[in-house]
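Input:
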Amino acid sequence: MSGYLFSRLLQTLVTLFVMSVLVFGGLHMVGNPVDVLLSPTATPAERLEVIRSFGLDQPVWVQYGIFLRNALSGDLGNSFVYNQPALHLILQRMPATLELAAAALVMALALGLPLGIYAGLRPNGGLAKAIMAFSILGFSLPTFWIGLVMIMVFAVQLGWLPSSGRGDTVDVFGVPLSLFTLDGLAHIALPAFNLALFKISLVIRITRAGVLETLQLDFVRFARAKGLPEARIVLVHVLKNTLIPLITVIGLELGSLIAFAVVTETIFAWPGMGKLIIDSIAVLDRPVILAYLMITVVMFSVINLAVDILYSIVDPRVRLEGN
Amino acid sequence: MKRVASAAILAACATLAPSLVSAQALTIGLAASTTSMDPQFYVVGPNSAMARNIFDGLVNQDDKQQIQPALAVSWRVIDDTTWEFSLREGVTFHDGSAFTAEDVVASLNRVPMASRNSPSSFMPYVKAITSVAAVDPLTVRITTAEPTPLLPNDLSRIAMLPAEDAEVTTEEMNAGKGVIGTGPFKFVSWVPDSEVKVARNDAYWAGPAAWEDVTFKIFKNNSARVAAMLSGDVDMIESIPTADTRRLKTSDDLRVVSVAGNRVMYLHMDQGREVSPFATGPDGKNPLRDERVRRALSLSLNREAIVDRIMDGQGVPAGQLVPEGYFGYDPSIAVDPYDPAKAKELLAEAGYPDGFKLTFHASNDRYPNDSRVAQAIGQFFSRIGIDTSVETLPASVYFSRASNLEFSFIMGGAAVETGEASGVLGPLLETYGDSAGRGNRGRYSNPEFDATLQQARQTLDDDARRELLQKATRIAMTDLGVIPVFYLANTWALENGLSYPGRSDGYTLAYEVRPE
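Output:
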């Protein structure tokens, strides 16, 4: 196990390195942040001063070297427009995004699993067909539009829920979370459901397919022949086998929930990391973009690792080996 | 898709119940977020607008950007390079300390420190100043290197802080420490990209604001901002998307405020190079160097139609670079009429009866509807026989390439930050050089224009300076160094029962919001 973890750590480091080279080079080619940020009336002296203070006067490889050296000591650079450490900016907004993603994931599983199992058990029933139709809608309607319609219906017309923003927060171990206040829950409901909609559909379809497939397998027939209660067959034996593809997909989707909740965060003015990255790209705030993508890489690596470990728990045939 | 959704939201507006506005708390939806609480760190609209709620300058800009007394009640020019400002008596900072001449000295001296690591610092506004001295507690004497008639305009940009806070860094202010001014509101809290809270300063020198607590919430997405307004989450929003303005105007529960803005949308043409990459006549040369061609392009534009159809009425056709009411506006300059026949004649006269090839570059995420405006302009050019193609790019790519002169014909938007004409004439039209014409991406150059503008800059007498600025404008608009298209409008939506005069600089200042 430790050998396995070690090799995974090594892989992550290599990925991080490759990623940083690509992003650094890419950002360098896109444009010069000074042209976007500096007022057009600035004199060359003022321009040079800004370029120098951002370290943009150095050749690219020197800039990269400096970045690498600082990164190894945990400093990913200062944001150009906030004049604050990029890492700090991202971590400051992280709790909001994580809690939104977590809420969306819980919704996806809580709704998707039962509906998917039902649709798998009674594939020809009217309700199952309705569930499948819903999942197609969930897949195909754009998040952007659904979000706006939800705001229109629940916030503007019915007035049940607030249209945007994050509600009151309470500090849990120093991290401000809104999941534990009524106002916070009211605020998170719409954006979380908006974000979860696609995932609910995904979970429904994967679960249904898994249940349908597993039901045909010999061990289910044996279990039935043995006289096990139907509930136990479905909830233990069938479900366990269905979970393996589900974990893979959900693992990957969780990463994208966190890293790219941009659309939902924008529509609902949710103060998370997604909005930060969009703004940073617009003004070419290189340190923030770079730091954000590095954190994304780390996050995906951690999630993938967690997925692999979960596999070994759900399916005893899977063994984690280092090579 | 966006349009469908916002249309749906607006339809819902009919059923919106009128809600009462509490006279104590006000919530405002802003379109852009403040990146720092240090008012002297970064020259960018959202930061300056937020700072005006908390801080004052020696002088302030009013809703038409004209200079008004603020912390200084009067000023006089002692000689060409010495100014004396008399300060307002009895003004206190939010921490209770008295505002005196020492605070002015300290605030002006803090600018270089706050400009460290700034992407666009306040240094240009203080670079003319060679020394600041406190004559007595209520008198400040400022010496400049050269005659600087725009000193009050420059000073209107510099926030006054208590002298004790002269050493407070931008980082500390971002953390909420030392955000202390003399303005109508006291700083309470800031969650970056989310909200800013302020509370009334009961001792404000111009009288207390109508609101005890004000919350500014950030909604960068247009539809989200409109939805927040319609659902009653906010009492007021700024910059209504143009597509929604007309319908919001017809709502009984809201009112819309629209005023002419200080940003002119203009076309910049390569006039510096014989051969230009994206403008080629049949002879391979750059046709844009010919004044007649530039006039033809201007005459081919139906500015009324662009404002009316593309901008949904949210703009005013422009024939020069500053709107009416601004210092240096010349009423004798008319907006070019829509005259495609005349335009074709001029083209033929210039030797291009069959037009020429032109690629027009514009940004697509910087100004309201910029890519649609560019498409429309391209079509007007095609109508007079110019083989035009339009390419739009994200601002982050576009501006770098435009500054590197990679394009031949571009569209830009210039705001008159100083409130008078030299603030746009200089950057856009003065001959490109180390200290002038830094935004002159067309490399227009006319020595007579340069001389007139330079003379205006050193003329302290207001009337004489106004005339010089008007003359410089006439020269540039005769040559068409740039083609002005229209001024953007600034818009706000408010709940019934509130009023806002609107500002040409687009700032949303809670102090000026009044209950009726």
